[in-house]
């Protein structure tokens, strides 16, 4: 799409009825990193195995000079530069990926945080110490030139150092950072967390929202909104009310972004309910996956391509890029060409926002602002009613994404279906018992190595047979918070299964991974758009959280502390489990 501009994309989207010009996040203007002929020719030439590599490469000189040279070169070759000359052009005008970042050892890192002493199993305690060491490996700090010459970088400048996920992800990501911060706080690194939080708050002040990640090509989309929860975790560990006071309005501004740009009305039985969805009203291929998005769009009629690209970006905003969750109703349920992310009201997004509204009410009360506390308490009550009316299914005992076009719930299993339990956004005191039955009925408790991301095998990374750390946390802590002993014991067993998988793979490979294949024992995951990544920020964070919660019971060996995992489903019969608990 040579010569594409963001304005054209918007006009096309308006013609397709996908958005309006009001209250949109700022587009990325870069004609090198976001759109334009240079990006198109380089990415379609596939000079690199991973499209992300090119858009992460800093410029050697000013972008105007690069574009002028490129325009002349392209004109000389009738807008089709031969591959070898294109490669030479890139090598001359761009620097290697990662040049703008330098390794950083957090000043508040210490040898032996206290939580390690809570871990009874000696092998698990040594492993936890090694994961604690990884924060130093994943620490990054931006070089001064990113501030002095921002136009030469796709990286968005952040004042404070931060922890990255790892692998190809050398910048920070929004929702990943929540679980990273939880791990850092257990490692007693509150100053590092405060800096990362300040970076996110600065982004909200500048752009009105937290982008998907720390690159200009991510500016058009956000990710699951966990900033308010990050603040709550930091406050719990530090009681830094001054920091809250200074930033409470910025937290409110971020929630306003979701209200203004991602709200949708659902009409049921004569009532209208306001809920939220993932929705990115911009077309054009994702710069970091440009060739794949372009080739996928080429399978569709030209008039459908902008809508496809907007839906792919919405899928990336969900964090689940990509999954059968977003493919329902398409002509081919396994093809990304039928993606419909914005046509669904997701359970997890609305649970996250419900939790954020509750926390904002608590924050304002703490600061003595009763009117704002009441406002957010009211918003939470309205969302809770909407969750119950639109997403909750009493017969099944779970919440489900709502299909706006077909006016029905998607009753496939996803761990996100239980997010309201984790977020504390429910009114029925018996919901934990119902959730347990839902997990039994879905046969999820027969999986020995982790909770599957779905029960569908599409080849996408957010589907079977992959399991992801944050989704384990959503289910485990959701059950663990319940007053029901049975729910708490199942939570422990699920934690044991996940710890065993992570520990076994680490024992073999000396690495942590972004996702795990749980189909036949634990091993690094696969599928999706890129190779499985080592690191790995949120996986480390979740493991440390589980070791902190259950460290006196978790084991590294083949004998489980309570029950063998293959026996778990059978033992969920109440009478047997209660008899075991009473011994």
> Strand-residue fraction?
5-15%
User: Structural class from helices and strands?
Assistant: mainly alpha
Q: Give the overall silhouette.
A: globular
Query: How many E-type strands?
Result: 13
Average pLDDT over all residues: 91
Question: Which runs of at least 5 residues are low in confidence (pLDDT < 50)?
Answer: 1-26, 559-583
Task: Please tell me how large the radius of gyration is.
Answer: 24 Å
The largest sheet has its strands arranged as 1-2-3
Distance from N terminus to C terminus (CA atoms, Å) equals: 69 Å
How much helix, percentage-wise, in residues?
Answer: 40-55%
Provide a count of the helices.
21
Largest sheet: 3 strands, antiparallel
A few lines on this structure:
The protein is mainly alpha-helical and 583 residues long.
Q: Can you give a write-up of this model?
A:
The strands form five sheets. The chain has a three-stranded antiparallel sheet with strand order 1-2-3. The protein has a domain at 430-583. The protein is mostly helical. It contains 21 helices and 13 strands. It has helices spanning 6-15, 37-44, 51-55, 63-76, 83-93, 122-137, 144-148, 174-186, 190-207, 227-238, 241-261, 290-297, 305-317, 347-366, 370-391, 419-423, 431-441, 469-480, 485-509, 537-550, 574-581; strands spanning 101-103, 139-142, 162-163, 263-268, 271-276, 344-345, 392-393, 398-399, 402-403, 408-409, 466-467, 516-517, 523-524. A hairpin with a 4-residue loop joins strand 7 and strand 8.
């Amino acid at each position: 799409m040579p010569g594409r501009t963001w304005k054209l994309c918007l006009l096309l989207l308006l013609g397709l009825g996908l958005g309006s010009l009001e209250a949109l996040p700022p587009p990325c203007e870069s004609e090198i990193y976001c759109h334009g002929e240079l990006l198109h020719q380089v990415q379609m030439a596939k000079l690199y195995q991973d499209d992300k590599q090119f858009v992460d490469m800093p410029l050697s000189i000013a972008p105007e000079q690069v574009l002028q040279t490129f325009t002349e070169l392209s004109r000389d070759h009738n807008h089709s530069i031969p591959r070898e000359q294109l490669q030479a052009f890139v090598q001359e005008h761009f620097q290697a990926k990662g040049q703008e970042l330098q390794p950083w050892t957090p000043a508040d890192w210490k040898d032996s945080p206290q939580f390690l002493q809570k871990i009874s199993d000696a092998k698990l305690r040594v492993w936890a110490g090694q994961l604690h060491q990884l924060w130093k490996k994943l620490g990054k700090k931006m070089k001064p030139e990113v501030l002095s010459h921002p136009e030469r970088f796709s990286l968005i400048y952040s004042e404070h150092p931060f922890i990255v996920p790892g692998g190809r992800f050398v910048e920070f990501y929004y929702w990943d950072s929540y679980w990273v911060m939880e791990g850092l706080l257990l490692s007693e690194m509150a100053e590092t967390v405060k800096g990362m939080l300040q970076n996110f708050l600065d982004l909200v002040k500048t752009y009105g929202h937290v982008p998907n990640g720390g690159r200009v090509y991510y500016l058009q989309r956000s990710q699951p909104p966990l900033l308010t929860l990050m603040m709550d975790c930091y406050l719990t560990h530090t009681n830094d009310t001054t920091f809250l006071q200074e930033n409470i309005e910025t937290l409110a501004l971020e929630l306003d972004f979701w209200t203004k740009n991602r709200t949708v009305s659902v009409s049921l039985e004569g009532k209208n309910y306001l809920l939220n969805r993932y929705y990115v009203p911009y077309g054009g291929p994702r710069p970091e996956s440009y060739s794949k998005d372009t080739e996928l769009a080429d399978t569709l009629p030209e008039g459908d391509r902008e809508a496809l690209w907007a839906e792919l970006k919405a899928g990336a905003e969900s964090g689940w890029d990509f999954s059968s969750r977003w493919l329902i109703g398409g002509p081919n349920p396994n093809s990304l060409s039928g993606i419909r992310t914005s046509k669904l009201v997701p359970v997890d997004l609305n649970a996250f926002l419900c939790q954020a509204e509750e926390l904002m009410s608590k924050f304002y009360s703490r600061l003595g602002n009763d009117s704002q506390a009441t406002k957010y308490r009211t918003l939470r009550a309205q969302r809770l009613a909407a969750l119950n009316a639109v997403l909750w299914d009493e017969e099944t005992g779970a919440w489900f994404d709502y299909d706006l076009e077909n006016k029905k719930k998607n009753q496939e299993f996803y761990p996100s279906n239980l997010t309201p339990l984790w977020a504390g956004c429910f009114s029925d005191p018996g919901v934990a018992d119902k959730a347990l039955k839902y997990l039994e009925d879905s046969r999820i408790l027969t999986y020995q190595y982790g909770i599957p991301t779905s029960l569908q095998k599409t080849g996408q990374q957010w589907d079977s047979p992959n399991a992801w750390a944050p989704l384990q946390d959503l289910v485990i802590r959701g059950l663990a918070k319940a007053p029901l002993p049975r729910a708490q014991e199942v939570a422990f067993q699920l934690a044991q299964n996940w710890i065993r998988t992570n520990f076994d793979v680490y024992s073999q490979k000396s690495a942590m991974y972004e996702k795990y294949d749980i189909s036949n024992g634990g091993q690094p995951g696969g599928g999706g758009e890129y190779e499985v990544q080592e690191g790995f920020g949120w996986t480390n964070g979740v493991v440390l959280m589980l070791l902190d919660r259950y460290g006196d019971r978790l084991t590294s060996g083949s004998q489980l502390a309570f029950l063998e995992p293959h026996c778990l489903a059978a033992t969920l019969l109440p009478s047997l489990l209660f008899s075991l608990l009473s011994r």
